Structures are given as structure tokens and as C-alpha cells.
Amino acid sequence: MGEDRTLGNDDARAGWNAGADAYHELQDSGKDYYRFLVFGPALREACGDVQNLRVLDLGCGQGYFSRQMADAGAEVVGVDLSEGQLAYAQAEEKKRPLGIEYRLLDAADCAAHCPAASFDRIVSCFALQDMANLPGVLTAVHSLLKRGGRLIASVPHPSTDTPVRRWHTEADGSRSALMTDRYFETGTSMCQWNFPRLKYHWETPYWRRTLADWSETIDVAGLQVHRIHEPRPTQEQVQEHPNLEDCYRLPYVLIFDLGLKPNEFGA
User: Fold this and answer.
1) How many angstroms separate the CA atoms of 104 and 45, rounded?
2) DSSP letter at 244?
3) Which one, of 112, 116, 107, 62, lies nearest residue 84 by Cα?
4) Which DSSP helix (H) or strand (E) runs through 259?
5) Does the pLDDT of residue 1 top 90, yes or no?
6) In the predicted model, is pLDDT for residue 18 greater than 50?
7) What stretch of H or E contains 151?
8) Are strands 223-229 and 253-260 parallel, antiparallel or unpaired?
9) Mean of the pLDDT values across residues 208-212?
10) % of the chain residues with pLDDT over 90
11) Would strands 75-80 and 145-156 be described as parallel, antiparallel, or unpaired?
């Protein structure tokens, strides 16, 4: 999958299908310590009490966050465009039934397959950046949220997810500063899944955006920001897991808490 042509959802599907086995092993083994210790708990906390709520998980993958929502008492529908990822999600559901409904579906098409205003929460765990048609996805969210409902979504933090990104290393091996550049170069990029903890390596396309890009797309879709979160490990977590020291110093993840804009009557 080169970058000399326009990439889209077919490329995302192929990439996530190719990485399905390795990604599931990363999650199932507990090796994804950033997610399990920092980003995942922060996203879960941002969702609040979901007991008896109807929740839609966009880009659910192998079902990690869908299961968290179901364990907290929600009625969950998970959608993803990767057959390989969903096969693992469905296998987990068969092994430990939670009543989660998984659908093979492009997130932008959800409004055509679900009743309007039918979800109390829509969630997305590190997936919106992998969706080629983000405006279409957020328009679907606008249609599917109940009045007072919320979209809670985590994405790579634009300030540190830049085309040029590397740590400056001192002579003693310590990292003194993260060097970033070309922040305003947005659009399609390839995520290289090549760190040592993985069973094998693969790549997936994603769409890099500035904070202003996110703000404009959210606004045009008829949504508004209630809060943003920048999750960070505690000092105690860093002492126990030194590899978390980088995301203690700098924000790696941005969590949006979004809702519908008030209508002209202020409802």
C-alpha cells in the first residue's frame, strides 16, 4: 500500500485484516500497557455511568472497549469494517457472552442501518483517525445520538503525532526532549506497526489532522465540545512501569467528550 494514490476504507480494511492476529495477541497478552494502564482507563472514566444505556462502539476492532462497556451494564453494538478484527470480537463474545451485537459496517453508514436518536453514548477507542470519511462518521453520530447523548472518543494527540517525531537521546541513553516538526502537514499517512512487542509487523492508513481540523469537522457536523481530556500516568505508575515515562511528560492521546449542539429553541 503505497502513498502515491488516494487511500480509503478499502486500504484500512486490508491493513486491519492483515494485522488482526498480531493486534489480538497484543491485546490478549496484556502487552499494550499504554492502553491498559493509561488511555483505556481514561476513556472508560470519561464515559461515566453507562448502566442500562445503549452504546455504539465505532471501530470496535476485536471488541476490547465494547466488552468494557458491556461489563459496566450497557447494551452494546460494535461496528467495524475489518472481518478479521470482528472474527476475534465474535469469538470472545461466544466464549463469554455479554449480549454484544457486532456488525461488519463502515462507521459512516451507521445512520442508514440504525434508528435515529437510538444511542445514549457513542464511543470510539483510537479509531476515528483510521476512518477515511470522518465528516460522514460525525454526521452519522449526530443522527444517532439521543438528545443529551455524548460521543466519547480517543485519538492520537495532534501535538505529538507529527510527520517528524523523534526523541533526542543523551550520551547516557536518557531521552531529553521529543523533537517534532511539520505539524501542519495533514492528510493520509501510514502507521507502521513495528514495535518489538508485536507478534509480527504490518501497516495501516490513517488521517492526520490538526486541532483546528478536528474543531472544524466537529462543528460542521452539528456537534460541540463539552470537555477534552489528555490522559497521563501517575508518578507511581511510571515508577512501576518506566516505559510510561514518555507519556507522563507529553500528551500522546486526546479524548473528546462531544454532544449535540442546542437547537434554536435551546433544547
Assistant:
1) 27
2) G
3) 62
4) strand 253-260
5) no
6) yes
7) strand 145-156
8) antiparallel
9) 97
10) 88
11) unpaired
The label of the residue with cell 486490508 reads: 14
Q: Cα-flanking dihedrals φ and ψ of residue 84, to 5°?
A: -65, -45
Q: Give the neighbor-by-neighbor strand order of the sheet with 101-104.
A: 101-104, 75-80, 54-58, 119-125, 145-156, 253-260, 223-229
CA distances from 31 to 82, 156, 157, 224, 234 (A): 22, 19, 21, 35, 19
Taken in order 135, 139, 144, 147, the sign of the CA dihedral is: positive
Q: What average pLDDT does this structure show over 89-113?
A: 97
Q: Which amino acid is at 230?
A: E
Half-sphere exposure of 18 (CA within 13 A, CB side): 15
For 64, how many CA atoms within 13 A lie in the half-sphere containing its CB?
A: 23
- Report the DSSP pairing between strands 187-193 and 202-208: antiparallel
- What b/e readout covers 13-43, taking b as 16+ CB neighbours within 10 angstroms? bbbbbbbbebbbebbeeebbebbebbbbebb
Reference 247, options 236, 261, 231; nearest CA is 231
How far, in Å, CA of 129 to CA of 139, rounded? 15
200-212 in b/e burial notation, b at 16+ Cβ within 10 A?
Answer: eebbbbbbbbeee
Cell numbers given for 212: 483546528
Residue partners of 225: CB distance under 8 A and separation at least 6:
215, 218, 256, 257, 258
Cα separation, 209 vs 207, whole angstroms: 7
Question: What is the reported pLDDT for 6?
Answer: 82
Question: pTM above the 0.85 mark?
Answer: yes
Q: Quick check: 170 pLDDT over 90? A: no
DSSP three-state, residue 197:
coil
Q: Is 63 left (phi over 0), alpha (psi -120 to 50) or beta?
A: left
Place of cell 449480549: 99
Is the Cβ–Cβ distance between 257 and 224 less than 8 Å? no
